[in-house]
């Protein structure tokens, strides 16, 4: 699998030296990579790029992706329309042919990771949170033949999962059930919505960088302006990267969630998200089995 290179330092400069792409800051070399090893270069900070890097990117089919803050704002695709067009065509073919195959894996990964979260607390405190129910539904989802059936199973698991989360949260937080943005009044739901917003931006960037079309999802319906594939891929990361971290903060010090800096400070493991997006792109390109991200 080819690499994704990141430009994260303000004032960095990308140039070509002896056939290699070099990222430097003043007189210090930050990284060097061979063009044959890299799939895309993601520019996250204000920086400069030499025209030789763009020429080399075109020659080797490397995408250049530019961010402002956490959101992708532009993508420079090689004039040869190499990698991205191939991925898009394969993604469209998979969407037409067997969207259920990918939808099953997204939800299998989501339920597995929810099970891991509840099971962790069951073992730690010797209590029952009905994690075994989610384990049962996780196995059943692999037998479902339609997206509607898959989403119905996800809905059944959500009732068990959020009931377990409610049992773990301090009563003073007033968490009754999961509420989306606009409906959330209690502190934990508000914190979850902030965390999911951060997660969405990371997944969106990863999807763009991997050459995937963010609007063509397998699980979530395609609607104008809706990044359906981003919502698909997010499912695997919600519990391990957001729920579990906020739950830990809430149990240790519930009042800490009142400080938004604490909530915005949770770590979203971008490297694993970018790897998973590339795994999805490779599955589409080469017909390989897609394996969801499974937390431990």
Automatic annotation (TrEMBL):
CDD domains: Cas1_I-II-III. Mn(2+) binds at residues 154, 220, 235. Belongs to the CRISPR-associated endonuclease Cas1 family. Its EC number is 3.1.-.-. Homodimer, forms a heterotetramer with a Cas2 homodimer. One of its GO terms (biological process) is defense response to virus. Transmembrane segments: none annotated. Keywords: Antiviral defense, DNA-binding, Endonuclease, Hydrolase, Magnesium, Manganese, Metal-binding, Nuclease. InterPro entries: Cas1 (IPR050646), CRISPR-assoc_Cas1 (IPR002729), CRISPR-assoc_Cas1_C (IPR042206), CRISPR-assoc_Cas1_N (IPR042211). It comes from the Archaea. NCBIfam families: cas1. GO terms for molecular function: DNA binding; endonuclease activity; hydrolase activity; metal ion binding. It is an enzyme of class 3 (hydrolase). The keyword DNA-binding applies. This is CRISPR-associated endonuclease Cas1. CRISPR (clustered regularly interspaced short palindromic repeat), is an adaptive immune system that provides protection against mobile genetic elements (viruses, transposable elements and conjugative plasmids). CRISPR clusters contain spacers, sequences complementary to antecedent mobile elements, and target invading nucleic acids. CRISPR clusters are transcribed and processed into CRISPR RNA (crRNA). Acts as a dsDNA endonuclease. Involved in the integration of spacer DNA into the CRISPR cassette. Its cofactor is Mg(2+); Mn(2+). The gene is cas1.
């Amino acid at each position: 699998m080819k690499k994704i290179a990141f430009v994260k330092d303000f004032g960095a400069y990308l140039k070509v030296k002896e056939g290699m792409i070099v990222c430097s800051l003043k007189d210090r070399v930050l990284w060097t990579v061979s063009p044959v090893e890299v799939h895309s270069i993601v520019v996250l900070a204000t920086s400069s790029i030499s025209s030789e890097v763009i020429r080399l990117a075109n020659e080797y089919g490397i995408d250049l992706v530019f961010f402002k803050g956490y959101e992708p704002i532009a993508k420079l695709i090689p004039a040869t329309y190499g990698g991205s067009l191939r991925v898009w065509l394969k993604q469209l073919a998979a969407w037409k042919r067997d969207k259920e195959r990918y939808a099953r894996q997204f939800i299998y990964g989501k339920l597995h990771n929810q099970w891991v979260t509840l099971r962790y607390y069951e073992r730690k405190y010797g209590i029952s949170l009905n994690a075994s129910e989610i384990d049962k539904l996780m196995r059943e989802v692999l037998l479902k033949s339609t997206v509607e059936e898959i989403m119905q199973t996800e809905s059944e698991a959500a009732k068990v999962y959020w009931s377990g989360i409610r049992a773990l949260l301090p009563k003073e937080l007033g968490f009754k059930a999961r509420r989306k943005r606009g409906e959330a009044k209690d502190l934990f739901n508000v914190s979850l919505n902030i965390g999911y917003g951060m997660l969405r931006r990371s997944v969106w960037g990863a999807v763009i960088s991997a050459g995937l079309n963010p609007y063509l999802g397998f699980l979530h319906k395609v609607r104008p302006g809706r990044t359906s594939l981003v919502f698909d891929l997010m499912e695997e990361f919600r519990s391990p990267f957001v729920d579990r971290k906020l739950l830990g903060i809430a149990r240790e010090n519930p009042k800490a969630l009142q400080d938004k800096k604490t909530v915005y400070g949770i770590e979203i493991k971008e490297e694993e998200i970018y790897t998973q997006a590339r795994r999805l792109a490779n599955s589409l390109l080469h017909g390989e089995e897609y394996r969801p991200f499974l937390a431990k």
